[in-house]
Amino acid sequence: MAKPVLWVTRQLTDPVMARARLDYQVIENRDDHVMTSEELIRASRDADAMLICHSEIYTKDVVAQLDPRLKMIANHSVGTDHCDLQALADAGICVTNTPDVLSDATAEIAMLLMLGAARRAYEGDHMVRTGIWHDWAPKMMNGFQITGKRLGIVGMGRVGQVVAERARGFDMEIHYHNRSRLPASVEKGAKFHSELESLLSEVDVVSLNCPASAENINLMNAKRFTQMKAGSILVNTARGALVDEDALLDALNSGHVRAAGLDCFKNEPGGNPSFSDIPQIFMLPHIGSATDDTRAAMGFRALDNLDAFFSGKEPRDKVN
Ligand code: DGY
Question: pTM higher than 0.70 for the full model?
Fold first, then answer.
């Protein structure tokens, strides 16, 4: 039987590409550019399935123009906010994601951002790197100590739970806001807040770990920033869409929010140029899952889902 044709929209890690080539007739995006809507639509005419990243955007309009040949979209990401899942389901296209395998790597970046924002990592690095470190003083570069402080996790799913675990290593008191309360065995003593406002007013660091679903767009807006404890810190490893960036700038400029650690931005790639002037923001270019181990695991998980689909089984990570 002929191998199914698989369009791989980005250059994935070598072991992942090697396995894909073994089991599928692979069409590759050799120069790894971000494919336009027109290119995605054209690609659907030649492929039974596509293996995509969060950089490929499938709006309702794009989905309406996909060729009926395309039967499956396997995401190389846990987030699926770049896909109109309902439109894809209506078009009979099965969509999967890659949960679990990136939780550790993303939680590492959440801790890095938390520490970087709290301990003024950008300012310190800049001082040493640019040769403007001329003095040492007891009041120089004093930051915020996170040990023993309260961490509020917004979205206590897979990543949120690992962030909680790592933060416990810093003796942090864990609070969380979630759609529903978790069993005690998962809570492990964390305090549940049914209302986000209640969590924001009690914690020293807020970590966003929820999906960018329609109801979560600009979850952190001007009102919510005022509800945060004075001098607290925001960390975002989830999606830029969760944060009203102008409101964050106001909250940082007023000093109400002490600092922010951001791996995600409304505009990606590129980020928000206005953030560059604010030393209290510690930023990374959306690299939560960027380790060799995790990127291989994400690719293999996507291929597992494709294999299941083409052998007539329900893929483990079907999301629509
Ligand atoms: C994810 O998996 O959603 C990460 O943001 C990388 O795409």
Answer: yes
